[in-house]
Amino acid sequence: MSSPTLRKLALATFAGIGAIYTATTFSAPSNTQTIANDMRKQLDEYNSSVEAGKESQFQHAARSDRSTMLDRHELMENAKIRKPWNMTFAEREREATK
Question: Origin, by domain of life (predicted)?
Answer without folding.
Answer: Eukaryota
